[in-house]
User: What shape does this take?
Amino acid sequence: MKLFLTQQIDSIKVDASNWPLYVIIGLSILLCISLFFIIILISRNKKMESEKKNEKRNNLPSRQAIDPEGRKELEIKELKNKIKDLEESNKHLTKIIEDKKEIDKEIVEAKEIIEDEIAPTIILLDVESSTDLPKEKEIFYVNKVSKEGRFYLSSLTQSCSENSLYKITLIDDNNATFEFINQTKSIKYSLDIPHDILFPVCEQIEAFNQEAKAIITQTVGKLIKENDYWKVIEKAKIKYD
Assistant: This one.
């Protein structure tokens, strides 16, 4: 720049009559110098703005890249924050573990209460309920009837067959009820010889019908046990269909 100015000055002859030209040249030189410095300042400002943007983007303090001490302090601070977070998490986990231990303790105590107080009561109730249950009634079947209205023990069976005539249901050891078994073979056999099968132990509530397809027990008869037979003390009431 100095060389350029020197050459320009030497090439111009000093002449008082040319002073306007000198002024223009001087102003031009000053303008060039000013533009040069302005360009340098603008470039520098842009560079600084770019550095600031990078610092904000990375959320890092200025000059971190060239300041090892600052970076080290930042790393230490981050580690301290992580340690603090871990300590808080550890406290939370410790509280959860303590709560679980307390719950387990309460469960054990509840089990002991159940075993000591409630369980014996339940067992006692089970025993009482089982003793209160009614016994299943015994049922027998018979295929013979005496003319005196008796069912002999020797003719009783515990299974029903096609030849069975009456069903006997025990009330207790000495009392029972009976009813006619309404099945095809029993009906036919009874209608053929009603004086031997029906009339000794049954009361008809309607006229005898030898063509009937069914013999229905309207009211069960009653029996009492005597020696080796069941004696009819109240006849069963039957009707014909």
Summary: Helices lie at 2-10, 19-58, 68-132, 184-192, 194-197. The radius of gyration is 62 Å. The chain has a mean pLDDT of 79.
